[in-house]
UniProtKB/TrEMBL annotation, chain A:
Nucleotide-binding keyword on record: yes
Source taxonomy: Eukaryota, Metazoa, Chordata, Craniata, Vertebrata
Entry-linked InterPro entries: G_SEPTIN_dom, P-loop_NTPase, Septin
Pfam families: Septin
One GO molecular-function entry: GTP binding
Domain Septin-type G: 23-237
Keyword Nucleotide-binding found: yes
Domain of life: Eukaryota
SUPFAM superfamilies reported in the protein's UniProt record: P-loop containing nucleoside triphosphate hydrolases
Protein name per UniProt: Septin-12
PROSITE patterns: G_SEPTIN (PS51719)
TrEMBL record, chain B:
Pfam families: Septin (PF00735)
Residue ranges of domain Septin-type G in the record: 29-295
InterPro entries: G_SEPTIN_dom, P-loop_NTPase, Septin
Stated name of the protein: Septin-11
């Protein structure tokens, strides 16, 4: 239908924005990787504050636990009027044992438990106005910067988890790779992922339209992101 | 909720773009808005819609001889800058035309419930796609009050009472240019007090948000909005404006001194569209869902007040259902067996009959045969006798002839 004049429909966008800002957002992120890969530092750097588990429990001696533990820490951060409830779930003990078989099981269990919890709330007859969302929105997987290939543990984990959660693989401590090594490493990882049919975020199946696909293709070229974390400030120039 | 730590950021992170991300997602998908117009035939529903959305929706004026009330829904796609709106306008055709209007409200309630039901079905599906579900639930109901100048009609009160728990009702006075200024104020007060005294809950413009609280509060005072609709333009001064030209003057639609059209447009579209959608989903739809599920026998807590596991409820329901099916199956099987037996008995009877008939016929046949044989024998005997007699007679005859010829011979000889 042709509009002959201004109606004011676009005002609804502002209405929506105001409403979302009032309710706030919930974001749940999980970091997985062997100890010492810089997970906590990375998360602190990302959110420019001490959101990681270690930071909120200072002074505790870090011992590698015998089994994979899952520990969540929640903070509320605000930026320009947008409130976000950020939950960071850490997985100490992952990949640190001598025998790492099935170390992904506690993680899968945790993720499914959150889905289950949400489903229960959704099915209830007298539902809450806003169902608390504890589902894991993204899982950042830290790949050690060996420069060679993905290890069997990496492949197994990512294969299983990419089916139930958005997996974002990153190359940790990438400052230990030269640029050429990094490029080759990325290339090999991309091939590996393709060979094993592991679909990481952003998944091709969820591309909504051509614009979306174009944007996501550019991102997919750069996966896995080679990252360096630093939560201390130094003078530069 | 309880003991959440607040953290301060040491720099710009960038998640302040989250509201924009969300809004962008909505705009790229387009979003739905559904308006239900309830009012008598000829009260100006279509014209008002055309005026509100500044366009010409295809429709023919309805006749007055509809046998009952029926709802006609039409969907349109409107685009303004980068916002795509899927607008559905539902019309009540034939409302108020019948002699007996007792059941007029029923088709309307049924339609609204049907849209809730469709959404509920989709939500309960195992493989569902709420993400791109075309939401047909009614977000706003514009109730057109006839400009009598006195009070609400009883049909209006009854209908609004039936609808107030299912949909956001916004009452408006149609064709308000027929009411004089002093009458209008009295009319509005009368209507509002009647609504209150009858317990009709109309849509409350939200006043909890600072940005919209003020404008909503001031606008609410003017309810019900007295509107005039027109798509024709008249020259006012040196501009063209939407208006109605009468022999005695011009009524300008967008002039707030002439009517409340601008207020309606502000409230319905520019300020509260999203709130209307939210209220529909979180209040009216949830109420429907709760009632429907309870009706179907689901509960949240069992008699001992322990929370019911939905799985258990489903299992119980499923077993019940399967039990029913089994019972039905057994019943049918029994009936079938009985029928077979009956038929078998019938057939056996028939068989017996046939056998008897056959035997009877056989016997009859035997008897006949015997009779015939006897007769045959009799006849044969007769024949034999006859033959014998014939033979004897012939013999006598030949003897007599011989004797006769001998005699003649003798006579001949004698003569010689």
């Amino acid at each position: 239908c042709q509009l002959f004049g201004y109606v004011g429909i676009e005002a609804v966008l502002d209405q929506m924005k105001i409403k979302t800002m009032k309710t706030g957002f919930e974001f749940n992120i999980m970091v997985v990787g062997q100890s010492g890969l810089g997970k906590s530092t990375m998360v602190n750097t990302l959110f420019k504050s001490k959101v990681s588990r270690k930071a909120s429990q200072p002074g505790q001696e870090e011992r590698i636990p015998k089994t994979v533990q899952l520990q969540s820490v929640t903070h509320v951060i605000e930026e320009k009027g947008v409130k976000m409830k950020l939950t960071v779930t850490d997985t100490p003990g992952f990949g640190d044992q001598i025998n790492n078989e099935n170390c992904w099981d506690p993680i899968i269990k945790y993720i499914n438990e959150q889905y289950e919890r949400y489903l229960r709330e959704e099915i209830v007859i007298t539902r809450k106005r806003k169902i608390p969302d504890t589902r894991v929105h993204g899982c950042v997987y830290f790949v050690p910067p060996t420069g060679h290939w993905l290890r069997p543990l990496d492949l197994e984990f990512m294969r299983r988890l990419s089916r139930i959660v958005n997996v974002v693989p990153v190359i940790a401590k990438a400052d230990t790779l030269t640029l050429e090594e990094r490029a080759e490493f990325k290339q090999r990882i991309q091939e590996d992922l393709k060979t094993h049919a592991i679909s990481v975020y952003p998944q091709e199946d969820f591309d909504q339209d051509l614009d979306d696909r174009a944007l996501n293709d550019r991102i997919r070229e750069k996966i896995p992101f080679a990252v360096v974390g630093a939560d201390q400030e130094h003078q530069v120039n | 909720s309880d003991d959440l730590r607040n953290l301060s950021l040491s720099g710009h992170v960038g998640f302040d773009s989250l509201p924009d991300q969300l809004v962008n997602k909505s705009t790229s998908q387009g979003f739905c808005f559904n308006i239900l117009c309830v009012g008598e035939t000829g009260i100006g529903k279509s014209t008002l819609m055309d005026t509100l959305f500044n366009t010409k929706f295809e429709s023919e004026p309805a006749t007055h001889n509809e046998p009952g009330v029926r709802l006609k829904a039409r969907s349109y796609e409107l685009q303004e800058s980068n916002v795509r709106l899927k607008l559905t306008i539902v019309d009540t055709v034939g409302f108020g035309d019948q002699i007996n209007k007792d059941d007029s409200y029923k088709p309307i309630v049924e339609y609204i419930d049907a849209q809730f039901e469709a959404y509920l079905q989709e939500e309960l599906k195992i493989k569902r796609s709420l993400f791109n579900y075309h939401d047909t639930r009614i977000h706003a109901c514009l109730y057109f009050i006839a400009p009598t100048g006195h009070s609400l009609k009883s049909l209006d009160l009854v209908t609004m009472k039936k609808l107030d728990s299912k949909v956001n009702i916004i009452p408006i006075i149609a064709k308000a240019d027929t009411i004089a200024k002093n009458e209008l104020h009295k009319f509005k007060s009368k209507i509002m007090s009647e609504l209150v005294s009858n317990g009709v809950q109309i849509y409350q413009f939200p006043t909890d948000e600072e940005t919209v609280a003020e404008i909503n509060a001031t606008m609410s005072v003017h309810l019900p909005f007295a509107v005039v609709g027109s798509t024709e333009e008249v020259k006012i001064g040196n501009k063209m404006a939407k208006a109605r030209q009468y022999p005695w003057g011009v009524v300008q639609v967008e002039n707030e001194n002439h009517c409340d059209f601008v207020k309606l447009r502000e409230m319905l579209i520019r300020v509260n569209m999203e709130d209307l959608r939210e209220q529909t989903h979180t209040r009216h739809y949830e109420l429907y869902r709760r009632c429907k599920l309870e009706e179907m026998g689901f509960k949240d807590t069992d008699p001992d007040s322990k929370p019911f596991s939905l799985q258990e409820t489903y299992e119980a329901k499923r077993n019940e259902f399967l039990g029913e099916l089994q019972k039905k199956e057994d019943e049918m099987r029994q009936m079938f067996v009985m029928r077979v037996k009956e038929k078998e008995a019938e057939l056996k009877e028939a068989e017996k009959d046939l056998h008897e008939k056959f035997d009877h016929l056989k016997r009859t046949h035997q008897e006949e045969k015997k009779k015939v044989e006897d007769k045959k024998k009799e006849l044969e005997e007769e024949l034999n006798n006859f033959q014998k007699k014939k033979a004897a007679a012939q013999l006598l005859q030949s003897q007599a002839q011989q004797a006769g010829s001998q005699q003649t011979k003798k006579d001949k000889d004698k003569k010689k």
